[in-house]
Amino acid sequence: MKKKIDKTLEAENITLLKHLLGIELRRLCSENEIDMAFFMGVDGRTFSSHIPEHLTPMQFHLLNLIKMNIKHICGQLQSENMKVSIQQYKHGTIMISGVGDNAFLVSIIAKGLEVSQIRDLMGAATTTSAVLKHILEVKPINKETIAEYPQEVSDELKKLSRLLFKEQFEHTRDYKKNIEIMNFLKDKIKSVVGVGAVDEIVTLVLNELGTAPAYMNDKLWITFVEKVIDEHIGKQRGDIVADECKKTWIPEVERKIKSFV
C-alpha cells in the first residue's frame, strides 16, 4: 500500500484558521529577517503576533513606538483606507500594510535597511497581507478558493496548508501510537542485529511498503515485523533466532496496537 506523504489539511474551521495566522506571521519573520510582526484590526485589537522571547533595546524601542502610535495608525486606516506606510529610522524600519478594509499588518525590522531591501520586504509583506486576508475571511484552503490569487499568494497558502497538516497531525493519537511502536521495534531489532544495522533495515522495509512510520496502520505494522524478521534477521542470525523473534514480537506489537484503541 502506497501512502502519500505530501498531504495537506484544508482549514475549514475557525480554530484551524486562527492557528494559521500564527504560522504565517512566524514564516514572514523567519524567512525575511523581520524582528516582529503584528496582525491587528482597525479597532486596535490584536488578532495575532510574533515577538521574540527576549528583546534587544532597539526592538523594545520600536515596539513601544508602535504602541504609542497605534491609535493614530488605526485612525488613518479607518478614515483614509491606507494601503502602505513605511517609517524609516536610523536603526530600524516599521512597515504597515493594509489587510482588507478592517485590518492591517505591522512589520518591525530593528536594523538599518537600504531602499532596495525595503522594496523586497514590502513584497513579502504584501503577499502575507493577502494570505492573512484570506484567513481572516474564514475561507478554506483548497484548489477552488486559491485559484484566483497571484502565484506567490497561492504558493504560500499551499505551504500553510501543508504546515498545518503536519503540526496538527503530530498531535493525533494515531501519530503518537505509530512513533511509539516504531521506537519499540527499533529497540527490538537493535537487540538482535546490533545498533549499526537498525536504520538500514528499517529504511529498506519501509521503502518496500511505500510509506513512513507516521502513516502506518495496524495491518502494515504486522507486515513490517514479518518482513524485518523474514528478510533480514533470518538472513543475519538464522532461522532459530528468526522464529523466536516472530513468536514474541508479533504478539507484543498486537498488544501495543490494542492499548491505543
Question: Which whole number gives the mean pLDDT?
Answer: 85
Q: Strand arrangement, largest sheet?
A: 2-1-5-4-3
Would you identify the regions where 5 or more consecutive residues have pLDDT less than 50?
Answer: 1-9
Name the helicity range. 55-70%
Number of strands: 5
Shape assignment: elongated
| Head-to-tail CA distance between termini | 22 Å
The helix tally amounts to 9
- Please provide the ordered H/E string of secondary-structure elements: HEEHEEEHHHHHHH
- Output the radius of gyration: 26 Å
Quaternary structure classification: single chain
As a percent range, the share of strand residues is 5-15%
Specify the biggest β-sheet. Answer: 5 strands, antiparallel
Structural class: alpha+beta
Give your account of this protein's structure.
The protein has 261 residues and is of the alpha+beta class. Helices cover 63% and strands 12% of the residues. It has a five-stranded antiparallel β-sheet with strand order 2-1-5-4-3, sandwiched between helices. Helix 3 crosses helix 5 and helix 6 packs antiparallel against helix 9.
